[in-house]
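The freezer alarm interrupted the setup, so I double-checked each line after restarting. Inputs confirmed:
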Amino acid sequence: MQNKVLMKGNEAIAEAAIIAGCRHYFGYPITPQTEVAAYMAKKMPKIGGTFLQAESEIAAINMVYGVASAGLRVMTSSSSPGISLKSEGLSYLAGADLPAFVVNVQRGGPGLGGIQPSQSDYFQATKGGGHGDYRMIVLAPASVEEMASLTVKGFELADKYRMTSMILADGTMGQMMEPVDLENLKVSKAPEKPWATTGTKMQRKHNIINSLYLKPEELEKGNIERYERYKIVEENEAMYEEYLMDDAEICVVAFGIAARVSKNAINEARSRGIKVGLIRPITLWPFPKAPFDKAKEHIKTFISTELSMGQMIEDVKLATDCKANYVLCNRVGGMIPSPEEVLEQIIKQNGGNK
Amino acid sequence: MVVFDRPHSLIDVPLHYCPGCTHGIVHRLVAETIDELGIEGKTIGIAPVGCSVMAYDYFNCDMIEAAHGRAPAVATGVKRANPENIVFTYQGDGDLASIGMAETVHAAARNENITVIFINNAIYGMTGGQMAPTSLPGQVTQTSPYGRDTKACGFPIKVCEMLKELDGAEYIERVAVNNVKNVKNAKKAIKKAFENQINNKGFSLIEVISSCPTNWGLTPQNALKWIDEKMIPYYPLGVYKDRSKDKE
Ligand SMILES: Cc1ncc(C[n+]2csc(CCOP(=O)(O)OP(=O)(O)O)c2C)c(N)n1
Ligand code: SF4
Ligand SMILES: [Mg+2]
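Predicted 3D structure, all chains:
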C-alpha cells in the first residue's frame, strides 16, 4: 500500500528524526536548512520533546553532547558556515565516543559564500574538519525519500558504533518536494547505553564521559580501538547504487543532486549508444570500495561530477589505484551542472562520438 | 568519634592541586552539599577545561568533561534530557568568562535550571598563569608582564554584576574561601544554589574568589591575604540577585 505524502527534503529529515525517536533538537538559524528547525519548533512541544534555538552553533553542538551523554537520540542541523563552528564539538563527540546525528544542508563557500546548493564540504565531512584522528559516518541522500530513510539509518548507525553520523545534503535536496512514504519507515530499537551519565542511583561506579587522556599510551590505545571500530564500519556499512555499469566503459561518479543530473545525462548518452554507467556513493564515509573494485577492471574513464572544485575525485582515484583516466565535471558557488554539460563531457570522453 | 570525614561524593584519591590552592576547598564544599542533600545518585557534574579539568576523577557522581567554556551548554543538554537529574558545572574564569561567556550568559538568560560553580582566581592557572578576563588592573601575569594595562587590554569582567541584570537568572552570589568565616558563607551559598535547582527555581551561579598561589607568585598564606587586600575590594562579596527576595 502506498502512503505517500508530498514533502520538502528538510521537513522529511525532521519528521524522520522524530520517527527515529529523537526528542531533542538544538539549532541556530541558517539558510538553506531553516525548515528543519521550523518543523521541530512546531512539533517538539506537542510530543513532549525539546526544541531549543541555541545562542550559536557551538552551543547547539555542545547541547547535543549533553543529551548524547545522557544516552538519548539527539540531533542538530545547520549549513556549511555553521558546521565549521560545530567542528570543535564534532571532535569532542568523537573523542568521547558519543552517538549523535548531524545534518549539513550545504551551501557554497568558502567564507560566508552564498546560499545556493553546493557539495564543497565533502572534505570537511569525510576527512575531518575538527581536530584529531576521527571519522564520521557520512550519508548522501539523492531524493526526499532518502532524506527520510537515511535519517533513520543515521540514528541507528550512530548508536550502533557510538559515532556521529552526518547527512551531507545540499540546498536542492533540502528544498525539493517529492512524495515520501514515512509510515513504512522501519526503526530498530536503540541499544542499551550502560555508559550514559544518567546518575549512579548509588548502585554503580560513576560513569565518566571524557576525551582527555594525559598519558600518551592511553590516548594511543583509545585511538587504535576507535579505528578498529571504524574498520568494522568500513567493512559492513558502505552503501551505493550502481546504474548501467555492467557493460560500461565510461563511469560517472556522483552523489546527491549531481547524481540525479548525471542519470539524466547517462540515459541520453545510452540512447545514443554510448556505454556509460553511474556509481552513486550513498555513504561518502565509508567510501564504497566494492563497486570500484569491479569497475576498475573495465572502466577507461571516470567522470567525477561534483558541486565542488574536485573533492570526491580524490577518493575515486584512491578506490581505483589511480590507473584510469579521471575527469572532473563540476560547477561551484551554487551553480549546478546541467544534464547537457554532463552529457557533453561523456561525449568528449567517448572520443567525441555522438 | 569521627569529626572530619571525607564526604561520600568525593572520591578518596589525592587531588592534584598545588599546595594552598583553594580548588580543593570548593570541591569539598560541593561534595558536602551533595551528601547533605542526598542527591549523589542523581547528580551529574560537568568539569571544565582548566586546573579542575580532572574533577571528573574526584566526584563520585556521574561526570562529563566539556570542551573549554562549553559546560553550560552541555549542562543544558543533560538537564533537558533528564530534568530529574541535578546538574552542576564547575568552571574557572577563563572557561566561564572568556571563551565560554556566550554559553554562560545565555544559560542564565534562559534561566536554565542548573547550578554553576565559578572559580575566579584572576588567572589562567592550568596553562601557566596568563592574564584572565578577571585579572586585576596592574596584575602581573605571563601575558601582562608589565601589569595589566587597562588601556590596551581593558578592564576585568565582573560576572555577578553583569548577570544580575538578566531577568532570567534566579540566584547570583559572590563568596570567597580564604578564611573560616568566608568558607562557611560559601558553603551556605553553594547549598542554596543546589536547593534552588531541586526546587525548580532555575539558574544559580556562585562565584568563588579563589587562590592560585603558584601563578600569583605568592606563598599560600600571602595568597589568602591578597584575596582580602586586592581581590575582594574589586570583587565585593554578597548576594547580587535572589529572585525569591525580589518577589517579596
Ligand atoms: C579551545 C581551547 N583553547 C585553549 C585551551 C588551553 N587552556 C587550557 S586551560 C585554559 C585556561 C583555564 O583557565 P581558567 O578557566 O581560569 O581555569 P583555572 O586553571 O584558572 O582554574 C586554557 C586557555 C584549550 N584547552 N582549549
Ligand atoms: S596552578 Fe593555581 S589554580 Fe591551578 S592547581 Fe595550582 S594553585 Fe590551583
Ligand atoms: Mg582561573
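Quick read of the result. Chain A is about 40% helix and 20% strand.
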